[in-house]
Design a protein that fits this description.
- Helices cover 35% and strands 23% of the residues.
- The protein has 8 helices and 13 strands.
- It has helices at residues 2-15, 21-33, 35-70, 73-79, 85-120, 177-180, 312-320, 344-351, and strands at 125-127, 160-166, 172-176, 185-189, 195-204, 209-214, 239-244, 251-259, 269-273, 284-287, 292-300, 306-311, 355-361.
- The strands form 2 sheets. A 6-stranded antiparallel beta barrel has the order 7-8-9-12-11-10.
- α2 (21-33) crosses α3 and α3 packs antiparallel against α5 (85-120).
Length: 362
């Protein structure tokens, strides 16, 4: 019992940022290796968030009650004729609280309208790649035209654009199968604008994954990958982020895990509340420590922030399907994470060289 109370106290200090650097590192290591502790952290975070929401609502009600108590209806009625300045004085004295009340009313109206619209429309799923032509239906890939570089000048303009990220330093790239399916040729472009020829080495239609291999002589082997795959399931409420190519420059997006299962209860996916756009398909999903926990694959129409990501367990399965290289070595993911403990901007700065735009030609 004593240990449980002490653990709860440590969790609260952890969530409130009261642990020192050594304590923080030790606790995050414990959390990483102990699913029970991880679950308690998520549960406690949800509890604290609920308390904060309740406190905010109570404070709002208190302010609204104060405003109401100060308004004398009879006096105000008399003042409307000869003394219009009375209303001005009420506004000056209580404008902060009145503004809060007005905001609350507006938020309520907007929320109710959004709920109504959501319930009237279907929740179909669309894949998150970019589209050149019209979207034929809600299940179509979202793809857009990408300007060809001089490297690919002899090819037609690219039909598809998506995202991929390095699985190994020697040029294996992971993306979604729907991004490259049916391609005549594939190129990947790094953060510096360099384009490289790639081939599809493995396809996994069950999990919508594809592994590419850069075969361009101009490609230089990458440095050691800064991230690693997180094998255990991440809990609800955990903060996550992604990097992808909804435009020609990489775009950062952040959010949190909203469900341990994906569309229609698919247990191979997470549902995350994170903004994504056409072009994010195949992008990495990372936790706050910089571990790869999944790959962005789809989003739900008409539901803002309902995004789905294939879990890292199935990324590892896809990687295991690649045969040994020419030297007889098993193609393996990095076992080290040099992002842990870094601020989010520094993490993003380090991983951007390992995230690629995928260009597909048909």
């Amino acid at each position: 019992m004593r240990n449980e109370i002490e653990l709860e106290a440590i969790i609260e200090d952890y969530l409130n940022g009261k642990l020192n650097e050594a304590e923080l590192k030790a606790f995050e290591e414990l959390r990483l290796n102990d699913p029970v502790v991880d679950h308690k952290v998520v549960t406690h975070k949800v509890f604290l968030d609920s308390l904060n929401e309740y406190a905010a609502i109570s404070d709002l009600k208190h302010k609204m009650a104060e405003v109401h108590a100060k308004i004398d209806v009879a006096t105000m009625s008399k003042a409307l004729g000869p003394h219009p300045s009375f209303i001005v004085n009420i506004w000056r004295k209580n404008k902060a609280a009145i503004a809060v009340a007005a905001s609350f009313i507006l938020l309520t109206v907007v929320t109710l309208y959004s709920i109504q619209q959501t319930t009237q429309q279907s929740g179909s799923v669309e894949l998150v790649s970019r589209e050149l032509a019209k979207i034929k239906n809600s299940q179509s890939n979202l793809i857009r035209k990408i300007n060809s570089s001089n490297v690919t000048k002899n090819l037609k303009p690219a039909n598809f654009g998506g995202t991929g990220f390095a699985l190994t330093a020697n040029g294996y790239i992971l993306t979604n199968l729907h991004v490259v399916d049916g391609a005549d040729s594939v190129y990947v472009m790094d953060s510096k604008g360099n384009s490289y020829k790639a081939v599809v080495k493995r396809k996994d239609s069950q999990y919508d994954l594809a592994i590419l291999k850069i075969i361009d002589d101009s490609f230089n082997t990458l440095s050691i990958l800064p991230y690693k795959l997180k094998q255990n399931v991440i809990g609800m409420g955990e903060s996550v982020y992604t990097l992808g190519f909804p435009k020609d420059d990489a775009v950062y997006g952040q959010g949190y895990v909203s469900s341990k299962s994906g569309y229609n209860g698919d247990t191979t996916q997470y549902q995350v509340s994170i903004p994504v756009n056409p072009g994010n398909s195949g992008g990495p999903l990372l936790d706050h420590q910089g571990n790869i926990i999944g790959v962005i694959s789809a989003k739900q129409n008409q539901v803002d922030g309902a995004t789905f990501a294939v879990k890292s367990k199935y990324i590892q399965e896809a990687l295991n399907s690649i045969p040994d290289d020419s030297l007889g070595r098993k193609v393996a993911f990095s076992r080290k994470n040099s992002l842990q403990g870094l601020s989010k901007p520094k993490q993003v700065e380090k991983i951007k060289d390992y995230v690629f735009m995928i260009k597909v030609y048909k």
